[in-house]
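User: quick one, sequence for these tokens?
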């Protein structure tokens, strides 16, 4: 019986430590996002006029492109991609990468939803060119895009051997986050500060998880 319990008990410490770090870190990010939202909405400059100017300048072609690009931050696309990537990374023995991609997107999505309710910032007073519900700060699409694509970049970085490949992967992931943020503003559903906060929170969350996984990996190997 002791031989069976040995491997389980040996994993209990590292897994428990990782779980505590993840939960406490997630709560800290929620508090930071809440604080930023309250600070911006109370003393920050009004972006309403900027959004009206964007609405006047957007063309039909630009709107069509934004409607396609914005899917790179949607859970309808990122959810299946995260599941597939996590399974492939797990089967390849990249357990930390699988954990990073799965919890990066999940934590980012839940974080954005909770902060929205806490801050309760109305959406811009312009025509919304995509059906949306709820509050605007932070942008869920921007948070999810930054969390997923940054997590994927960090998970696949060690797999890509050549510097050119890593550079191209980095540029592609960062570009996807940027264009998703721009698309949400063009579609009139978010202020620039909404998408900026979402990108910072999602990207920061992914980096935090990556550091947690790296901190936990050596301890797991030592045991």
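Assistant:
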């Amino acid at each position: 019986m002791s031989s069976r319990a040995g491997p389980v008990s040996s994993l209990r410490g590292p897994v428990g430590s990782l779980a505590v770090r993840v939960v406490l870190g997630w709560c800290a990010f929620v508090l930071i996002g809440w604080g930023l939202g309250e600070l911006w909405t109370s003393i920050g400059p009004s972006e309403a006029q900027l959004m009206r100017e964007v609405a006047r300048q957007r063309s039909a072609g630009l709107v069509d492109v934004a409607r396609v690009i914005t899917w790179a931050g949607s859970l309808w696309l990122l959810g299946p991609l995260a599941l597939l990537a996590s399974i492939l990374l797990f089967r390849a023995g990249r357990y930390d990468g699988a954990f990073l991609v799965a919890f990066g997107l999940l934590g980012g999505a839940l974080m954005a939803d909770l902060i929205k309710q806490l801050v309760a910032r109305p959406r811009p007073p312009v025509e919304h060119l995509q059906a949306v519900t709820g509050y605007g700060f932070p942008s869920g699409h921007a948070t999810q895009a930054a969390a997923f694509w940054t997590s994927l970049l960090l998970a696949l970085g060690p797999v890509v051997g050549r510097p050119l490949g890593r550079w191209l992967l980095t540029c592609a992931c960062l570009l996807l986050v940027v264009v998703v943020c721009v698309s949400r503003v063009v579609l009139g559903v978010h202020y620039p500060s909404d998408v900026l906060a979402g990108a910072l929170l999602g990207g920061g969350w992914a980096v935090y998880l990556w550091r947690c996984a790296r901190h936990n990996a050596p301890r797991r190997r030592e045991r």
